[in-house]
Amino acid sequence: MANRLIHAQSLYLRKHGHNPIDWWPWCEEAIAQARQDNKPIFLSIGYSSCHWCTVMEGEAFSDQAVAEIMNRYFLPIKVDREERPDIDHIYIQAVQLMIGQAGWPLNVFLDPYDLAPFYGGTYFPLTPRYGRPGFLELLRAVRQRYDQGKDQVELVKSQILEYLESPGKLPALSTLDKNMLDNGYRKATSILAYQGPGNSFPMIPYAQAVLQSSRRGAPLGTEHPAVQRGINLVLGGIFDHVAGGWHRYTVDPTWTVPHFEKMLYDNGLILEYISNLWSAGIQDDSLRRAVQKTVAWLEREMRSEAGYFYAAQDADNFVHSEDLEPEEGRFYVWAYQELQELLTEPEFQGLTSAFDIEPAGNFEGLIVLQRLQGGALSPVVESALDKLFAHRYGSTPELCSKFPPAVDAQQAKTTHWPGRIPPVTDTKMIVAWNSLMISGLARAAVVFQQPHYGELASRCAEFILQSQWVNGQFYRLNYDGQVAVIAQAEDYALWIKALLDLHQMAVGLTGAMNAEFWLTKVKEFQANFDEQYWSSASQGYYATAMGASGDLLVRERPCEDNAIPSANGVALTNLVRLSLLTGDLTYLERAERGLQAFGQILKEAPQSCPSLVTALDAWFYPIQVKAQPEILAQIASHFFPTTVLQSATDIPGVALVCQGLTCQEPATSLAMALEQLARYQS
Q1: Which runs of E-coded beta strand occur in 421-481?
Q2: I need a surface site. Which of 75, 231, 509, 602 has the fewest CB within 10 A?
Q3: Geometric angle at alpha carbon 341, from 340 and 343, rounded to 5°
Q4: Average pLDDT for residues 544-570, to the nearest whole number?
Q5: Rounded CA gap, 569 and 494, in Å?
Q6: 3-state class (DSSP) for residue 343
Q7: What is the Cα–Cα distance from 527 to 364, expressed in whole angstroms?
């Protein structure tokens, strides 16, 4: 029997549409019903490509006994974190405080009257295992605590509320100093360089901060943490060496075995980072190959006919159409004997010389491909990888320019696929994530002088401009032409950054056009962002717009980075860039007030906010270059992270380099302009 979620737009919610649990979406009606019935709310948050979310859906949430207890004693609400990152961010902080760790699935019990959490966790097995309680016994214990332990419930709630509200009570700093910047970069470097046990995440906000700080220190070398992170990302098993694209993270410290879901946001961030690393002088061919393969994957599997990019691909796929449950990673991994059978002897030997391949495998007896060294792969090895591609997809890379998505498990199982059964693709459009990909493609287009990358970025941006602004509102999501959920601060901040990056691409890419069009759009969206999201009292941007925060426990001003850089970190950097491009100092003044508002966090806990650290860098070192069009592409292909470029024909010499309101003597050559830039950057 279906429940309320069966007709939801969200793929993640629809996956729970046949659970016996009487799920509600997050809405005022659900909260009102919980209050009327005096039932604590069971809030479960996840996303469609999450492996352990899928596991819990198939175990606890499909169990009839669990459903009977849940429906009788709780009001269950299911939230897609990709639809509502504001809700997710509040409650993941609460669970982190309660148990010292957090992730997805995120399961939280709330007081229905004030929506404050009093107990929570992540994955709960149906029966006790992994050192975790069984879900049935947990539900009984939580309801008993809610009914009979009111004092303890109120104590936990008050502690969590105090913690969530504390960032908004920090006094602003009146003075920003460069010691804060140096300390922030030191903290980011120590975090990025740490090599401990456990999972390995891309951590691009930290990597970008460390790379940005490198211009003020020793030259980049292979042991530099920023370089090492890039090498791990392009050589490790986290990268799909056969078909392109990065998985979310690896479950080990050696970058070998990934959690196999591919997220658009990771790929956009990493694409921009690898491009920046190349522009900083780390020009190993493995970086170029990873960029090329990833763009090919995007076009083949993640790009809609309308030009936007899909959200994610699942970690799991069905091995056979008759299977009841999918298996993790089987679309991507190989048996040793399978490799021997698919490849010629020279190809197999070439593959084993370039990748870490052993008969016993490295993942449940199977093999995740991980490169042994950088550099270009030989033609023999590339031929071997093309054969593996053909086995996986049923066609060669040259002939398989488009691979249609499996939009749900039923389609995955019933379609006749020419190769392996693919993972399910979540085809919703998310403005923030598409913006990250626009930025990645725009930067790669300039660095590698690939106009086609720029065309992909521009077409995606055009879709957002045409489709996401409806009746005076900017919307976060698009489901097959239908907009949903008013944009949040991360959508605005990352979208405005993407527009700025398109402007810089149009300036720095040979033959590109329409630079002023993109700048005009930046100013339009920035004005609306400032009006709807800026806190006049506290300074900085709220996560949600005025009038869109009534159902939230607190209205946050996000400044801490996660997998995605914080909205305020990105937004304050945008303001500095916009000030340089327009000459309007009110943008710079707003950036300063925002940095002062978050000054205590920058001073005392910079390890939590590397994107705010890079915003502070942009504020201390705002550089503008006006240059003759013929040398702009050559300047743009270098790594000058706090610099904006503008085309100018009415200047003496070939370039005019200015820091803030002070300009150097006109440069008479490209070499002179680059030398001036390098001096100003440090």
Answers
A1: 425-426, 429-430, 469-470, 473-479
A2: 231
A3: 70
A4: 90
A5: 10
A6: coil
A7: 53
